[in-house]
Amino acid sequence: MSSTTIEQNIIELSISKDNQPIINFLRDVNNKDIIDMIDRTVNLSIFITILNHLLETLSNSQDFDEKRYISIQCILKNINEGKVKNQIQIVKIVNRVCFELTKLKVPQIIELCQMCTKEIQKGTDTDNVWKELLPVLVNILEENVCVEFNGEELTGKEFKNHLIKTLIMMDWSANIVTSLTIMFSEILLDKDQHQQVVRKLCDQIERMTPQEIPMLIYQLLGLCKKQNSQIIFIKLQSYFNIRIYSNKESVNSDRNSMDVIGDSIDIAYVNAESTILYHVHQYANSGYDTKEYLNTLKTLTKTPEYVLHPFQLTFLLTISTIPFYEKNVFDIIKAAIFRALSDDQKRQESKWVRDMIPAFDDIEKVIQTIIECSVDERDVVVQGLVNLTFVLLSTSSSIGREHHVEKMWSIGKNIIKELIKKKRDLSQIIIQKLCNLIITGQNVHQYIRCLQMISKRFGLTFLENQKCIVELIEQSIQVSGPVASEILDVILPLTKLSHTTRDNLILMLRKGLHSKCIETRQMAVVGFIKLIKNLKISNSAALQNYENSFDSGMSVLSQISLTLTGRSMCAGVTNEALCLEILGILRRCFMQQADVKAKLYDNLYETICVNQDLCQPLLELLWSHFSSFYVVDVAILPPLNFSNAIQIKDTDAILTERLGKLIFTIAMIICKRRSIGDTSPMLQKFVDVFEILSTKMTQCDLEHFELDDGTDLLDILPESQKKMLILKEVMSTYEALISYNLCAWNLDSTSSGDTIKQLFTGYCRLNDFSKSLNKKKDKKKKADANKSTENQNETSRKEGGSEKRVFKPPDTVMTLDVASKLLTLLHQTSVDWSCPEQANILKRNILFHQYALQAVHNLFISLKQVKYLEEDKKSTHFDYCMEIAKLLFVRCIQRFDEISEFDYGTALLSLEVFNTILQVVNLHFKNHWLKFLNGICDLKETNINLAIEKILSNYSKLLEASDDDSAQDAEVAKLIINGFLMVGAQIAGKTNCTIANKNIEWMKQMTEDRKLFGKAVVNSFVTFLFKLYTKHKLSTTLQSSFATKLTDFFGRISDEEKEDGCVTGIFNEAASTTVFLCLCNEMKSMLDDVDWIILRIKAEATWISIPAQIDMEQKRESLRSKERSLSCQLCQIISIMIDINDVSMPMGPCCEMVFKINTNLYQTLCNLTKYFTMRSSKLNPAFQVARFNNVVKDTGKSLSPVVNKLILYMDHNQIEGIVSKKKDAKLLKNKVLKETKLLPKLILEMETFSSLVIKLSKKTNIDLFKYVGQGTARDFRIKDLKTVLAEKRQSDENADSSEDEEPLSKKNRT
């Protein structure tokens, strides 16, 4: 029968409702005819109809089982051979066949499974129908109780496991990996099978083209919805690290900036990564559970290099845009960044930690790489970066975290810079959000700094956000002074680009100038001054031309606009006219409060330095105000009317003018203009007046200021308050005139030295008078103390009120530039602007030296108290720090003996000022230590250690020359050591650092030979010695030697016979307790490092446990090495703690500290034991390889017995203390309670450690119990057992002798 006849008959007979005809027909058709029919029609569109009728008929009778199976085999064979071209046809055929599979017999199903397996083994890239068939076949077989396969009877589940194992063992072709993934997604796999399959599939990624990988990952994500998703992402990290990020680093090293991906990076891999990230985002957004992987990453934050890898960070940023994951993702990223920063700090502080923790690449470089790969196409990642920026900027500062928080702010700011640079359309979102945070927040410094950066680098972009600019301008008059000043620094660069912005700012500043709040008025004054600085007259033409192309807005200063209407000007107004108008506005400041005017005076000199053309109108403005205080009559003293600067209102005297600041400001402007050859009449007029002022002020005495009339200036009467204010202003005026004569000093000056000396004499006269005020007050207190008891309460109240009114000298009006010139004059051998005769007049004056150094010291203290320096002044402040520090180091510290012979107070002050400068540098210029120290030592080295060595060698010589028994040298030694510590802390942590080793040995020798001037100095010195040693040495020899020396001094608890302590160096009666506490703090620091590393190795163990790793054996060996190092470090700590616990220490802080450290030590041991319990098994006792058994042995056999003895020692000493000091029973009771409350916690940790060791021993079948023993019974014990036993023996002997004597006495009585 022909196949055509069969085809026609099947179609015709199937039309009938009666199935019997077609059944009879098919019964007569042989198998070969059916196969021929299928081969002929399988590629025809009508075949689906034929197939439906055929299979439906064959399924109605068991007689057709063979025909049905043969038909299915033939169909699948045709599809596998590629004879069916239409994909839709194939899908329909396969779906229909799958529907029939449940009707096949088990042997037939097994045969089909084997057929599918063979097709998979071939690995041909055909239609891969097995991916739909095999899951159905496996699921059918799994339901069977018994399956016969290869002569064996298996359960359906056993056959399934065998089949999956067979598939896993095959060598898969890369062509079918995606199909295999689809297939396995439909098969129910147990946990182990699933992991093996996923690992096998992920291993195939390396063999696939970048175009094939996204589809595979899409299917893998479906396969790993509930488990093992981490295998996928870690494999992808490895894959893209080699193909994108490693190449990216090499490209970045050769190119300073890139706006696109480098040529050496195949764009195909970047596109593949982008597609994968899109799939990940889609899956996560549709409910895909990434909680398992996020929990893994949360654990891995202790190893931040894994989490902060570019791919992992990109993945996290991708899913961070989904609200459900946002908080968790940013918590992970933030924790990883903070951990990386902390790791870096720990590495700097400890050589052991440096060996345990690898250096991590700069986080900003990682983010830069992500931005460059993502900015063009990955909008989701870019959105995540924007959100990450504000998460980092929102990090709040706290004690001890300032450096880390500053770094996180810096990272956030740099992300903003790169995003706006590469994707300008993000600027509006970023700027608006920053403005909102500034307006609504409180701690907004970091946000303002970001806006300052945007304003300076992307001014035109910023101007597109006019709404934000207006909001910022309005906000500037509503916030505190420092914040307002920072906001002004945001707005001012924009005023150069837009007249509209400038005019809005001027309007708001005018409004602020009339505010009720003094701080707002001060802000307005500062704003106007900064505006003048920005509007340089010399650049007015350029600004006007640029403005015409950008903004046609007219100034709101109508007076200027009207004045210029007749001139031939295109548009706008000149900077010169605007500056003059602003000066007219500032004229009204002279009617403001003294604090407002002080802000004006503080900034005018800098304004003239920038806009020198404004000098003439500014001098005229100042003259009109200054003349109201200047006394023209040369015969009248004083030459200034100080009374006009103070007003009496009700019961208070109010200062209305800071004459000292006014005169100093005018003096600086005069000297600046004279230095450039200005000879204008107004300038000469001021010069003449200041010469007269200098002369007449030298002639003034107390009576000229009405200060000698016996009035008590410390009284609360308004007249007394007025004279107090006059005294301060006169002293400031003397300072201002000294500054004027100093700055005006040149080679033509013939009497500058004499004039300054006379002015300083007048200043000293007032200073001595002010000191006498406080002395009088002290005498008055003593007199009041002798009054009758009836008025005692009233007197005490008066004293309480008067104690608050003490004279405080006014702040110096000098600035750092004047102070630097003054110190140069006093300490340099010669200066090119003075003749030696005049300079020597001041150089010989001891009080003047002290005054100059004290003024400089006050200036740097003020600088140290500023939380954030203005960005435009940082460079100037740093230069003055370096200049003055160099002068003091070269001329004072290196010549300390000479300066001491001249005046000991001057020498002491020079050390103090130098230390204060070091503190300022450490606070505000941490990143410029190399430049600073090179500047001091006049070096140009890239190695900071050379400059440090030069400075420390001078410090060490000074300290060696000091005398331990001299009270005077003790003050010097304290300053020397403080400076030594600050400079020494900058020693770079390098292997075999010569300077570090040299100073360690020197400091060790000092501790052995010298007493070091008491507790405070010893504490600083020993603490730094430990830090330096830990930073550069791996061993604990120093700590061990200190512990031994302390036991030699205090004695040992274990020694029954007490001997006198061995006194050497700092190990003496006065300082030994301090040294003991320093050693305890060092041990605590070492334990903290151990805890830090334990957390890290736990995370590394978690990382290694994840399959799909590369270089797995290398990572395992690295982990084992770290575990051995950790055990070794703990053994050394335990050895030292054994000695510390055996010290016969005094009760109090020492005992309390030791108990705390013991508790911490046992907690650390418990954590490490838990870790090894997790890592170890009977087959793999990891703790043995790590030599943890030595730690257990040392703890159980040596440490624990000593700790138990310490507990007995403490109990015994507490009882003796209570018995011997009954008068202080309450104090002793509190002390005992404080010390004994630590005991239960320590005992708990000791017992917990023992139980954990036993658990580890049971798990590994290795006997560790022999080391920990049974513990100590503490509920009931006999103290001083030997004494008790001796007493018991004596009492027994006495009892026996009394029994022998009793019968004899009875006999005698009878």
Automatic annotation (TrEMBL):
Alphabetized InterPro entries for the sequence: FANCI (IPR026171), FANCI_HD1 (IPR029310), FANCI_HD2 (IPR029312), FANCI_S1 (IPR029308), FANCI_S2 (IPR029315), FANCI_S3 (IPR029313), FANCI_S4 (IPR029314)
Residues in FANCI solenoid domain copies: 66-284, 381-529, 813-1025, 1042-1280
Coiled-coil boundaries: none
Pfam families referenced in this protein's UniProt entry, alphabetically: FANCI_HD1 (PF14679), FANCI_HD2 (PF14680), FANCI_S1 (PF14675), FANCI_S2 (PF14676), FANCI_S3 (PF14677), FANCI_S4 (PF14678)
Basic and acidic residues compositional bias, start-end: 795-808
FANCI helical domain: residues covered: 291-372, 552-771
Biased composition (Acidic residues): 1293-1302
Region of interest: Disordered: 777-808, 1288-1310
Protein name: Fanconi anemia group I protein homolog
Gene source species: Nicrophorus vespilloides
